[in-house]
Please model this.
Amino acid sequence: MKILAIESSCDETAAAVVEDGRRVCSSVVNSQIQEHRKYGGVVPEIASRRHTENIVQVVEQALQDADCSLQQVDAVAVTAAPGLIGALLVGTNYAKGLALAAGKPLIPVHHIRGHIAANYLAHPDLKPPFLCLVASGGHTQIVQVEDYTRFTVLGRTRDDAAGEAFDKSARAMGFPYPGGKYVDEAARRGDPTRYRLPHPKVEGSDYDFSFSGLKTAVINLLHNAAQKGEAVVIDDLAAGFQQTVCQVLTDHLERAAIQLGVPAVAAAGGVCANSGLRASLEGMCARHGWGLYLPPLSLCGDNGAMIGAQAYYEWLAYQPAGMDLNAAASMEMEEAFTPPRQSPLTGIVQVAQSGAENLPKV
Model:
């Protein structure tokens, strides 16, 4: 089953053709980073306009690279939540138009479910259940992946996400947007023990995160040094900040994995491209003998391929969406956009693992 998937939740206009949730036939990403860099972050109105300008060409290129036409794909999928509402609406409405014009089923996908599914493209042997750390610019969660379409969020950030803390701290250190990769590069040169930074903890919760205080500590350290005329070794500060974030993420995931007794863990999202986090997770899994699944760097950021991967399992489990589908800026990942395929009168049983032989005829 080939699915044309569209992703436009933030500042990347992306499209891909994915077969059976596991094979990438094509993947095209048009990034707006250079334009947003001069503002120090994503400007929602600009992002929406650029999606409108780019989406036709990006989708056409994805179909061309996959050597297929719109009529040759079996369904159209799209990120419908969460994200910047204007950006989401561009992708959702375009996908609705394509599905209606071509007579194809429309499959809405939750953005975070898509990030998790990026691992299915890189690791053919990966199957639920497993535990996944999702760390990106807008989300930091520990997710129990019970099935391809059943999830339980065990922990989440109470304020800033890890990626947001990276970008804001990087800006304070003088790095351009997006600052995560610049902090990573500087951290490799620095001494993480030079500056003492707090290790944030949420009282009463073993798994929830809080990175706002850590970000503020970095900003205050820089301001105080400037007021006193003291120099700050940016490489060392970057190293200390990165090590703290990675330790917090790894420690929370480790506690959850021990309590649940899982044999394997995964990670997903843009922050998972960070070399310090990847090394920290590898060390954790080596200590416990756990399997570790990480997406390649090309699949850590937002892309259409991850949406196409998850869409396959959403199609197996749920009814396709109608033309009344609307985008949503926020939505819990446990929620589904459409009813399950099996009638509630006979019991709801999701069939995401049952195989392609159970696919309804398109």
